[in-house]
Amino acid sequence: MSDDLRPASDHLLEVDHLDVRFFTRRGEAHAVRGISFTIDRGETLGLVGESGSGKSVTSLAILGLIQLPGKITGGDVRWKGRSMLGPVGEKYAHKIRGKEMSVVFQDPMTSLNPLFTIGTQIGEVPRHHLGMNKKQARERTVELLDLVGISNPQQRVDQYPHEFSGGMRQRMLIAMALACEPEMVIADEPTTALDVTIQAQILELLADLQQRLGVAVLLISHDLGVVAQVCHRIAVMYAGKIVETGPAEGVFSHPGHPYAAGLLRSTPRLDVRQARLVGIDGAPPDLINPPTGCPFHPRCELADQRCRDEMPPIDSYDGGREVACWHAFAERVGAEAEA
Amino acid sequence: MPSLSELAQRRKPEHADDEPLVVVEGLTIRFPVGRAGFWGGQKRFVHAVDDVSFHIHRGETLGLVGESGSGKTTTGRAVLRRIDATAGRIWFKGNDITHVTGEHLRSLRRDMQLVFQDPYASLNPRMKILDLVAEPLVVHGIVRHPKDASDRVAELLQLVGLPKDAMDRYPHAFSGGQRQRVGIARALALEPEFIVADEPVSALDVSIRAQVVNLLQDLQDHLGLTYLFIAHDLSVVRHISHRIAVMYAGKLVEVADCDEIYEDPKHPYTRALLSAVPIPDPELQRDRHRQILSGEMPNPVSPPTGCRFHTRCPIAEDRCRTEQPPLEEKAPDHVAACWLT
C-alpha cells in the first residue's frame, strides 16, 4: 500500500493482506481474500457490504475470534505496529482485547447473559482488565450507564437484561465496550436489530461518544445510510475483497467501482422519488467457487475479457481514493438512470 | 424506465372513483395476556390494534408503515381473516367479510393472498418448488396432484422471473431473492386480486431488494393487483406505494398520498420517523435537521391515555394527555390524528 514509507506505528490498527478461509465439507470457502486497510486514532471507518461479503469475518479476525473450521491463512493484523497473530501475538492480543479494543455486536437480545445483573456483566470488564474490586467496578458501571444515557443508573445497575428494551440493551453493550476507555471500538451492525427511531438514538449516542472520548470506530454495516451518517472513511467489500476505499463524501458522491455505484443506486432514498429502483442483476458469488478474475464481473455491465481473466489490483486515485477495477471511474451506462 | 405518464397512471389508479376493494372500519384487536389482581379477576389485554379505519382501491398500493409493535402485521392478518377482529368491520369487494366462515371463507381466501417476510422460513425445505407453488391449487381442489399443474407452475415461475427447470429443485438451491420470487409465485397461483405483502424485502440484501420491488410493481401493472404493503422501512415504501398509512402503538396516526406524506407530514410521529431514516449522502445528512425522539414505544398492555404518542411527542400539551385525537382531514385526502397540527 501507499503508506509503506511511514512508520508502521502511525496507525492504530493495520490489517495487512488478511486472508481467512473456512474449511467446510463442501469445500474451502475463501471468505476474506487478502484485504488491507488501516484505522487511525479517532477515525471512523465504515466497512460496507452485503451478506457474505466477508465484513463480519473481518471483524472476527481482528478480534481473534475465528474458530474452526475457519482459519486465518495469511496476512497480518497489527495493533500499534505489533502483530496480534501467531503465538507471541496472541498473548499481546489478549491484553488488548476488551481493554484497548472492544466490540459491540449486532443483537442486543442474545449478547447479554439473562442470568446475571447488568452490574455484574458490565463490571466484569473493569474487574478483569483494570483489577478493580467489586465496589469500584459497581461505581464504574454506574458512571458508564450514565454516560450512555440510561436514567436512574443507581437502580438500573441491579436489574436483569429482560427488564430492558432492545435499545436500552444496545446501550448496555456500548457501556460494556467503553468500560476500559478503549482506543478503538468495533461496532458490528450495531443498529440492525433496532427500529428506526431507536437506531437514530443509538447512532447519535455513538457519534457523541466518539467526539467526547476520541475513540476510533470500525463500523460494520450493510446500510449505506447508517454509514453515511457517522463515518469519515468507508471501505466497500464484495466477495471477500475490498473493492473501494476513500473518504465518505467522495465515495458517496462519485463512486469509482461499479459495485459501489450499483449499491448506491439500488438503495432506495427517502428524499428522492424514483420511477423505478435500479437493482444489480444476479446474486453475490459462491465463495467456495468464486469466479475467476474480478469477483464482480458476472454482475457488472462494464465487464470485458480482461475482467474475466485477471483480478484488478487496488489502485490509488485522487482524493485518497482506492479502487480495484479495470474500469474505475468509467462513465457508466447506468449513469443516465441516476440523472 | 417508465415514462412520466405511466408514472402518473401508477399513482392514480384507473378505478379510483369506483368502490374501494378493501374497506376496514374501526378495526380493533386485543389479545388476552393472563390476569392481574389478587383473585385474577381482572382480565388484561394487549391492545394490538385500536380503532383503525382505511380503504384500498383496486389496483392501488397502500403502504402500511410502523415500527415493531405498532400493530401493522396484526392489521394485515386481520384483513386476510387470519386473525379475528375483536371489534370493527372489514369489507372486501363490497361484502362484509368480518364474520364469514366455512366454505365462504375458503373461497374468499382465493382472492386474497399473503407474501411473507422471511423467504428462508416460509418455504418448506423438504418440498420441491413444483409442490410448493402448486400447493395452493391442490388445497383449493383445482388440481388433484401437483404434477397436473406443472404447466401452470411453469407459467407462474416465468412470471416471477425464475427458470422453468427451477420446478424440480428444492428451496436450498436458491438465494434469498429467488426464494422470495417463489413465495410470490405461490401467492399468485390462485390468481388473487388482493395481496398483503408483509415486509417482503426486509430480509433481502439491498441489491436484491430492488429486483423484488420492481417485480412486485410489474406484476401489479400486468395483473392489476391490489397491495397492502407492510414495512418498517419508509424509503422502500415510497417507491412502491400510491398512498401511505402510518401506525403507532396500534393507532393509525396519518394517511395521505405518497408524495404528500414525505413532503408535508402532519403528525409529529411521522415527522420524527422521516427524520430518523438515514440518507446515503454524507453532505446532505450533515445539513439535515434531525429530530430524535427520546424514549420508546409504550407498553401495549397499558397504553397511555389520550394520544398514544404524547409520551414521546416534542409538542405535546395537556389536552394530548387526556383526550384521544380523532383522525381528521388536515388537507385534501390527507388525514392525521393530532390536536396540534
Describe the protein.
The complex is a heterodimer of chains A (339) and B (341). Chain A has 339 residues and is α/β, with parallel strands linked by helices. Chain A has helices at residues 55-62, 86-96, 118-130, 134-147, 153-156, 166-177, 196-213, 224-230, 248-253, 258-266, 305-309, 335-338; strands spanning 13-24, 27-39, 44-48, 70-79, 82-83, 101-104, 184-188, 216-221, 233-238, 241-247, 315-317, 321-323. In chain A, the strands form two sheets. An eight-stranded mixed β-sheet of chain A has the order 6-7-8-3-9-10-12-11, sandwiched between helices. Chain A has a four-stranded antiparallel β-sheet with strand order 2-1-4-5, covered by helices on one side. In chain A, a hairpin with a 3-residue loop joins β11 (315-317) and β12 (321-323). Chain A starts with 12 loop residues before the first strand and ends with a helix. Mean pLDDT of chain A is 86; it is low at 1-8 and 333-339. With 341 residues, chain B is α/β, with parallel strands linked by helices. Chain B contains twelve helices and twelve strands. In chain B, α4 (129-139) packs parallel to α6 and α6 (176-188) runs parallel beside α7. At the A-B interface, α7, α8, α9 and α10 of A face α7, α8, α9, α10 and α11 of B.
Q: What is the subunit arrangement here?
A: heterodimer
Structural class of chain B: alpha/beta
Biggest pleated sheet of chain A: 8 strands, mixed
**Order of strands in the sheet with the most strands of chain A?**
6-7-8-3-9-10-12-11
- Tell me roughly what share of residues is in helical segments of chain A: 25-40%
Share of residues in helices of chain B: 25-40%
Unreliable runs of chain B: 1-16
Helices of chain A, by number, come to 12
Overall geometry of chain A: globular
Report the order of strands and helices of chain B.
HEEEHEEHEHHHEHEHEEHHHHEE
Task: State the separation between the terminal residues of chain B, measured CA to CA.
Answer: 38 Å
Beta-strand fraction estimate of chain B: 15-25%
- How many strands of chain B? 12
Shape of chain B: globular
The major β-sheet of chain B equals: 8 strands, mixed
**Spatial sequence of strands, sheet with the most strands of chain B:** 6-7-8-3-9-10-12-11
Report the portion of residues of chain A in β strands: 15-25%
Give the averaged pLDDT of chain B, no decimals: 87
